[in-house]
User: What shape does this take?
Amino acid sequence: MTAPPNPAARVNAPFPGAGGAGLIETVKRAVVLGLRDAVTGTTLNGLVNGSEITVDMEYPAKVENYPGIWVQFSFSEMVNSGIGHEILTKRVLEDETINWEPVREVQFRGRVSLTIVALTSLERDRISDAVISSLLFSRPPEYVLTNPTKDTKQFRQLIAHLAKNPYVSMTINHDELIPGGQSMTVGAPWDQDLPVYEDTYSFDILGQTNITFRSDGTYTLRAVVDAGEMEDPPNKYEWH
Assistant: This one.
């Protein structure tokens, strides 16, 4: 018996061939956009000094980027979906010719690290609480039994945003959040006498993506010619 189709399943759009954003940058951007949706536009904005929370891939080096969250990511495992596994996809070109393009699927594991930076201990702690809630308490929408008309989508912004990414499928390990510890150092990038408060948290992700080869190893099919039937060799071991 075959299982019924999963309506939530989708196929990742293949990465472009060369140039542009790669896998590391795409994962970071997906997490950045998801966190922006989760911790900004809420009562956390304007905690102490009226500044909004900045979520970015770059370390906050300017005063207008505080308070903020610095997103980092590194791989721990990358494997092909199968030994020599590639599939062919058909693409119709502008001149109506057909291009058969190899697509390779890749599975990966990695760890996302979040560094919360602020100019007060209160801001740091409240942003950290929001990050913890978005990760430990998050649940997929289909698991939440609520009245759709009263659904506040609480703690679901991050995973909902990741689920909509067109290029990479990512699953967060919500069962384990790894604290890195709080710290306070004297000296901001623009003022060496200013105290800066930091807190770090990490979590693991499992993902899958694919890349299509459009500029290497692909051929344009212009015609199909029937060469007739293949004759049997005199001996079945003489196929070469």
